[in-house]
Amino acid sequence: MALRLMTLVVAQDNKDKVQAILDERKVRDCWQEREDGLLLTNLLLNAEQAEPLMDAFSSAFADQDSFKVILVPVEAALPHPEEEDQAPKAELEEEKKAANRVSRDELYEEALSGTKLGRNYLLMVLLSALVAAVGLLRDDIAIIIGAMVIAPLLMPNIALSLATTLGDIKLGKKALWCNAAGLGLGFLLAGAIGFAIKVDPAIPAIAGRTQVALSDLVLALCAGAAGTLAFTAGQAGAVIGVMVAVALMPPLVTAGLLLGSGELALAARAGLLVFTNLVCINLAGVGTFLLQGLGPRHWWQEEKVRKASLRAFAIWVALLLALAAVIGTLL
């Protein structure tokens, strides 16, 4: 069972209010400290308890200047926490929404950190595109997989799915800008290489990324859902397999190389594969987040965000159907 250490900081006169919230829940351990007029409440709890507790604390204390909540993962604790008795029914209903995933706020912070459009991100895009180009031109699968594992474009798309699910415009804009910059930079570099070096479209690694089939839709949807599940479970290692299964950089670089060499029709086919993967990753991401009960913090936002999420989900589905129709005509 994954554990979290949560520290709540509020003014000392809120002790009874804090206790009332905790009395409705069963945490593994709790201890309090007083410092400079502040009450620090430390809680050892299961990962799925974090989200409902943070929501409760936010609703009760968000208007206070001293209010803070700090949440960190716990690698180990001694003595080992014992299995708890059955929790109260109300708490079980709250935890059911966050079952098998980390809290909304942890997901948000992780997604936000993956949308930082800075020098490191741009360098990662350039390096990934360069490695992919070398691997494609040499028809070397090992090198191409190296570019897939770097995968700088995967997290901005997961962040876009999360922003759509939460109705967070700020995160959505950051994710879109990060996506656009990464896709544009990788494509321009590949196009420059294709212009400087005549690319042979018969190279198997390149030719294979100009052939789009309906099975690519299934693969991208499954890989996108698996990647989102791994992300929500906090299993970063499992995302690596998804990077390889539905990588965006190799087909993007293929499109750039072929366009730079004047192979317009083949470049368009490779671009179609890139667009297919983008649509499927986002569609699978939004669908998976919704199925896991992820939503806004406050109840009065739920209806508005739910409608916006379903509208965005419908748009992704429409794009998917359009892609399926286009791919069907190419077969």
TrEMBL record:
Swiss-Prot/TrEMBL keywords: Membrane, Transmembrane, Transmembrane helix
Chain segments annotated as transmembrane: 121-137, 143-163, 175-197, 212-231, 238-260, 266-291, 312-330
Tree of life domain: Bacteria
InterPro entries linked to this entry: DUF389
Keyword Transmembrane helix in annotation: yes
Name of the protein described by the UniProt record: TIGR00341 family protein
